[in-house]
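ARCHIVE CARD
CATEGORY: sequence design from structure
SOURCE FIELD: tokenized fold
FIELD CONTENT:
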């Protein structure tokens, strides 16, 4: 494994606060256009925070958002950040067929590439919805020109996750070729794999505990893969109707997100996923050599 402290991957899933899967209903989806849009202001606030810290990241942008705010996409790219795809309509892959999934990711990719005139390399599924039952999606990603995916969360969860999945960045062999999988970070503690990558977990765990768990991964030579959403930096967002569990997951400690993010950026070194790739490939090769040699 490399001796140097690794640079880590920081990413953001750019979507509106009302597009979260936990609040999804057919009626609400039909009325997206009637909800107050806050994604532009929230993302601008986030970009300012990153700029002040001299940090760049990967932004997985929803095609629906990019279509309405192309200037925001250009603003993200002009800051040196990587732009990648979050699909078009924020529809769970578990609710799609292979043909509708292909249409969704092709549409999103086309919108983003038309705005920036550059290829989209990465993809992240809404709510990490590549599961054991939707692994067919990885083959379609290869066929549609994606180089890497960051959707397979190796945890047990009621809405997503593949507990048995490889927790390290690795290559998936599909019927149409290879696809890099860059899973969100987890750490094994007392025999249980804990999610530590961000989102609601970032707001739930005390920061001192989260930092200790991330340091453990770093000491093992891993590159962290962290994620957040711009709406998580907006404690004043309108409240949506939903179950008690969904509301707790979504609104818990929103007023602490920015403070904790500032601490995270001070404690760890981050870069866009595409820039950490040489290191990811090096670590992957080192693991393969170790396995072959029995070290």
């Amino acid at each position: 494994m490399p001796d140097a402290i690794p640079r880590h991957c920081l990413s953001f899933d750019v979507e509106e606060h009302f597009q979260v899967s936990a609040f999804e209903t057919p009626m609400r989806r039909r009325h997206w256009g009637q909800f107050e849009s806050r994604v532009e202001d929230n993302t601008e606030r986030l970009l300012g925070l990153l700029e002040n810290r001299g940090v760049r990241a990967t932004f997985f942008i929803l095609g629906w958002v990019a279509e309405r705010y192309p200037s925001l996409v250009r603003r993200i790219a002009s800051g040196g950040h990587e732009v990648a795809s979050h699909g078009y309509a924020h529809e769970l892959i578990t609710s799609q067929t292979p043909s509708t999934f292909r249409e969704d990711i092709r549409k999103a990719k086309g919108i983003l590439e038309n705005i920036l005139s550059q290829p989209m390399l990465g993809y992240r599924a809404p709510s990490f919805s590549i599961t054991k039952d939707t692994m067919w999606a990885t083959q379609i990603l290869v066929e549609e020109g994606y180089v890497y995916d960051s959707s397979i969360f190796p945890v047990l969860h009621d809405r997503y996750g593949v507990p048995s999945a490889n927790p390290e960045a690795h290559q998936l062999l599909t019927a149409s070729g290879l696809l890099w999988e860059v899973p969100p970070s987890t750490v094994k503690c007392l025999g249980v794999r804990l999610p530590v990558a961000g989102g609601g977990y970032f707001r739930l765990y005390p920061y001192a505990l989260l930092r200790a768990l991330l340091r453990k991964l770093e000491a093992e030579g891993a590159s962290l893969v962290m994620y957040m959403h711009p709406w998580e930096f907006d404690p004043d967002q309108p409240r949506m109707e939903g179950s008690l569990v969904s509301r707790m997951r979504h609104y818990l400690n929103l007023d602490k997100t920015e403070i904790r993010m500032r601490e995270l950026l001070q404690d760890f070194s981050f870069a866009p996923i595409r820039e950490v790739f040489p290191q990811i490939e090096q670590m992957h090769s080192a693991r393969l050599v170790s396995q072959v040699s029995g070290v």
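CARD ANNOTATION: DSSP finds eleven helices and eleven strands in the chain. The longest strand covers residues 8-14.
SHELF: design records, drawer C
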